[in-house]
C-alpha cells in the first residue's frame, strides 16, 4: 500500500513498525519457514507470522489454543539475542535517517523529519528510502505511517500492515479519523471500548460528536478529555528523543555477495559518515565496532577500544579497516552482503589535547571537510579511492 499525496499535504512525523517482528526474524534466518505459519514461543505465543495470524493466532494466546486454530504451524523457541541484534541494526537506520527518533519498543519508533526538507526532501521519499534500507540491510519488512501528528502516524502504520506505507494528508485528517472504529483511538483498551459501545459509540465520528463533559460521564474525566482531543484531530505530543544516544553507527548493503575490496571501500565512506555525525553531536568515541552480515544472514562483530576517546575520522577509519583486514580470508571465502561501523563509549567531555608525536590526525581538517559537506553535500569532497569505481556511497534518499 503506497498512498500518494502532494508534498504540501504531507506531515513530517513517521511511525515505523516492524511487521510480526520476532516471527519475521525467524523466517528471515530460516528460509524453510518463509510463507508458512510460524509461532514463536511454546506455552504462550510471543509472536505469530501473518500466515498464523490469518488463522486466528494472536500474541499472548495459549500455545495449545494457537495450535488448535492452526495445527500446521511451526513452533520455534524465541532467540532474544537475534531480535536485539536485528532491532539494533534497524535503529541504526532510523538514526541515520534523522536525529529525532523516539523508540516506543524494540520494533517501533517515531521519527520526526521536519528539519530535513531542504537537505533530503519531503517525508514521502524519506519513508520510502527507509523501508528500502530496512529490507535491503536487515532483511525485514517494515510498515510506515506518515502524518502531521504521532497519533495519526501510528494509526496509519497499523492500517498499512503488512509491509506497507500509508500517508494521512493534512487536509483529510478528520475524514480519515472519523471512519475508524473507537478501538483505534490511542488508549482505548477492552474496558474503555466496552464503555463506549454501551453508550452506542462505535466510530471515532461518534466520539467526536460528544463534548468532553459528555465523554467524561462515560469513561472518566481524564480519559474523556483525552479521547475528545484525539477524535477531533488534536494531539499535542511531539517526538521526544529522550536520553542521549549510546552509539553512532551506519551500514551499507553490498548487494549480492561483496568482496573484501568492495567492503573496504564501503567502510571508508561509512567512517566518513559516522565521523561527521560524531563531531556534529560534539562527542568523542572510545570504541570502534565493525559489523558484517553474510549471505545466510549470519552476523559477525569485532571491536577495538582506543587508548583515549577520539573524534578523528582518520583514527576511526584506521581502526575499522584493521578490524576488517583481520577477517579478510573469511570475507573472500564466504563473501558478505552488508558492512557496518559503530562508535560507542560516547563522551561529551571533548577531545583531550594530544602531543604531536601521538599520531592523532589534525581535527581542523575534519571540521573543514564537515563544513564543505554541510554546505555543498557529501559528494562535494570525496576520497580518491571512491573515484571511477563501481561502488558509490549512497545518499540518505535516492
Automatic annotation (TrEMBL):
Cofactor binding, per record: Binds 2 magnesium ions per subunit.
Site feature: Substrate discrimination: 22
Subcellular location: Cytoplasm
Catalyzed reaction equations: DNA(n) + a 2'-deoxyribonucleoside 5'-triphosphate = DNA(n+1) + diphosphate
Protein keywords: Cytoplasm, DNA damage, DNA repair, DNA replication, DNA-binding, DNA-directed DNA polymerase, Magnesium, Metal-binding, Mutator protein, Nucleotidyltransferase, Transferase
Family: Belongs to the DNA polymerase type-Y family.
Protein name as it appears in the record: DNA polymerase IV
Amino acid at each position: 500500500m503506497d498512498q500518494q499525496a502532494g508534498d504540501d499535504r504531507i506531515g513530517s512525523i513517521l511511525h515505523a513498525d516492524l511487521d510480526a517482528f520476532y516471527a519475521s526474524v525467524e523466517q528471515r534466518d530460516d528460509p524453510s519457514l518463509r510463507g508458512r505459519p510460524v509461532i514463536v514461543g511454546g506455552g504462550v505465543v510471543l509472536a505469530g507470522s501473518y500466515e498464523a495470524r490469518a488463522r486466528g493466532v494472536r500474541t499472548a494466546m495459549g500455545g495449545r489454543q494457537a495450535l488448535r486454530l492452526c495445527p500446521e504451524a511451526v513452533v520455534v523457541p524465541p532467540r532474544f539475542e537475534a531480535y536485539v541484534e536485528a532491532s539494533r541494526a534497524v535503529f541504526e537506520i532510523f538514526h541515520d535517517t534523522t536525529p529525532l527518533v523516539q523508540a516506543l519498543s524494540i520494533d517501533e519508533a517515531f521519527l520526526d523529519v521536519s528539519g530535513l526538507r531542504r537537505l533530503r526532501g519531503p517525508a514521502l521519499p524519506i519513508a520510502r528510502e527507509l523501508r528500502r534500507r530496512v529490507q535491503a540491510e536487515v532483511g525485514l519488512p517494515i510498515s510506515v505511517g506518515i502524518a502531521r501528528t504521532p497519533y495519526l502516524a501510528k494509526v496509519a502504520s497499523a492500517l498499512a500492515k503488512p509491509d506497507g506505507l500509508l500517508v494521512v494528508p493534512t487536509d483529510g485528517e478528520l475524514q480519515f479519523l472519523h471512519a475508524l472504529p473507537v478501538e483505534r483511538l490511542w488508549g482505548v483498551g477492552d474496558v474503555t471500548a466496552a464503555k463506549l459501545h454501551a453508550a452506542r459509540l462505535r466510530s471515532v465520528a461518534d466520539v467526536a460528536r460528544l463534548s468532553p463533559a459528555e465523554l467524561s460521564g462515560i469513561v472518566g474525566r481524564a480519559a474523556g478529555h483525552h479521547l475528545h482531543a484525539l477524535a477531533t484531530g488534536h494531539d499535542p505530543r511531539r517526538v521526544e528523543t529522550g536520553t542521549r544516544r549510546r552509539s553512532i553507527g551506519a551500514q551499507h548493503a553490498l548487494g549480492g555477495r561483496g568482496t573484501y575490496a568492495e567492503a573496504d571501500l564501503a567502510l571508508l565512506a561509512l567512517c566518513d559518515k559516522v565521523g561527521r555525525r560524531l563531531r556534529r553531536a560534539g562527542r568523542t568515541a572510545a570504541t570502534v565496532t565493525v559489523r558484517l552480515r553474510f549471505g545466510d544472514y549470519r552476523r559477525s562483530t569485532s571491536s577495538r577500544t582506543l587508548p583515549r576517546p577520539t573524534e578523528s575520522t582518520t583514527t576511526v577509519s584506521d581502526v575499522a579497516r584493521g578490524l576488517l583486514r583481520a577477517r579478510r580470508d573469511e570475507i573472500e571465502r564466504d563473501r558478505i552482503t552488508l558492512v557496518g561501523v559503530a562508535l560507542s563509549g560516547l563522551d561529551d567531555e571533548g577531545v583531550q589535547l594530544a602531543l604531536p608525536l601521538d599520531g592523532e590526525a589534525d581535527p581542523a581538517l575534519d571540521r573543514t571537510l564537515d563544513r564543505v559537506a554541510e554546505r555543498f553535500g557529501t559528494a562535494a569532497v570525496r576520497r580518491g579511492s571512491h573515484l571511477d569505481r563501481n561502488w558509490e556511497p549512497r545518499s540518505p534518499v535516492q
